[in-house]
Amino acid sequence: MTATTARVDCDVKDLGLAVLGRQRIEWASREMPVLAQIRQRFAAEKPLQGIRLVACCHVTTETANLALALQAGGADALLIASNPLSTQDDVAACLVAEHGIPVFAIKGEDTATYLRHVHRALDHRPQVIIDDGSDVVATLIQERQEQVAELIGTTEETTTGVVRLRAMLAAGVLAFPAVNVNDADTKHFFDNRYGTGQSTLDGIIRATNTLIAGKTLVVAGYGWCGKGTALRARGLGARVIVTEIDPVRALEAAMDGFQVAPMHEAAQVGDLFITVTGNKHIIRREHFELMKSGAMVANSGHFDIEIDLKVLEEMSHEVAHLRPFVQEYRLKSGKNVIVLGEGRLVNLAAAEGHPASVMDMSFANQALACEYLVKNKGQLAPGIYPVPAKLDGEIARLKLVAMGIEIDTLTATQVEYMNSWTAGT
């Protein structure tokens, strides 16, 4: 339903779900101590006071805690979904009804609704954009050039979005600073590897109730997301095959003990396929033709283009819905291919996404990156910037404190040695 209250405009499924959403947001907050500390400081210092901020993210319990931290910092924030199937409708309702944050997100929204929400976000005339895939930024550049000058900067959460930002920079259209949150150590080492690894398998198991042990599982891509997925799949007893285009990553996968093969070979033996590359048509016609009947395919990359569903539909005479988030494409050849989560992020379409304790670090990076952009307004040239190492290290320190873990510090002698070039053997 589209609703307008006395306080806030929104487009959510049902504001009556707010109470359930509150309970789930509070549950997630227990596992997000770093973001809680940032929220407390933001509430006292108001570093984002009056800043119009748009966040295009997966509308989940973890994102809700980020939104509340930004609001505590004084931001005039608006939230839209970055994926049609990732929204948790009760969370969206709670943010609107109990916190007055405009949210435009409905689980299962169609493409037209999603694009309408993107434009509604840009109507907010953002000064800072938190993007997840760079759709909002790309739309701003292509269709709202008159607003570009108002933008202080953007932050990007995903590998896919960073690739798009680099393409914008190369094309000479990136006219503002962008912070690459995705490549912060406290993001990709943990969120991409442990978060994606666990939540992807979680989504597949929830959707299918299949046993992973004993299956041949093909992981397309051995970046941090692929590493985590392969590692968790092996831990569940799968025989894992990795496909890659990068020789260094392929070598790393082989050294990690995984079989490495091109997709046309893996397609013939795989029982379950997971794409995590950030690229297009990783699994396509020639691979579907080689697959065993009953093979399952899932995607954990940001966009739903990694699996060529259009050609799969052309190859089929019927598509059957077997259970939630499980579609069986019945091919004209007589074989069947099962697609999970409509080819969208299976960990969010069929499950709840990353555990809150992992997103604690990722969203701490987002909050501090927004503060960094505002503090450095007008001082950063157009381009792509890393999260400052000092902020990255502080997030790791806070996380260790929250986990009750202590580490060593350098002695004075060690500091002197590390800063000297004359000391030797």
Which labels suit this protein?
about 425 residues, alpha/beta, Rossmann fold, 2 domains, seven-stranded parallel sheet, 17 helices, 17 strands, about 45% helix, globular, disordered N terminus, NAD(P)-bd_dom_sf, hydrolase, cytoplasm, Ado_hCys_hydrolase_NAD-bd
Q: Label the CATH architecture of the largest domain.
A: 3-Layer(aba) Sandwich
Helix coverage percent: 40-55%
Strand order of the largest sheet: 11-10-9-12-13-16-15-14
Can you give the mean pLDDT?
95
Largest sheet: 8 strands, mixed
> The CATH topology of the largest domain is what?
Rossmann fold
Structure characterization notes:
The protein is of the alpha/beta class. The chain has two domains: 2-187 and 355-402, Adenosylhomocysteinase-like (Rossmann fold); 193-349, 3-Layer(aba) Sandwich (Rossmann fold), CATH 3.40.50.720. The protein has 17 helices and 17 strands. Helix 8 packs across helix 9 (224-235). It is globular and about 65 Å long. The termini are far apart. InterPro entries: Adenosylhomocyst_ase-like_sf (IPR042172), Adenosylhomocysteinase-like (IPR000043), Ado_hCys_hydrolase_NAD-bd (IPR015878), NAD(P)-bd_dom_sf (IPR036291), S-Ado-L-homoCys_hydrolase_CS (IPR020082). One of its GO terms (molecular function) is adenosylhomocysteinase activity. It holds the Pfam family AdoHcyase_NAD. It comes from Gloeomargarita lithophora Alchichica-D10.
Short structural description:
Its EC number is 3.13.2.1. With 425 residues, this protein is α/β, with parallel strands linked by helices.
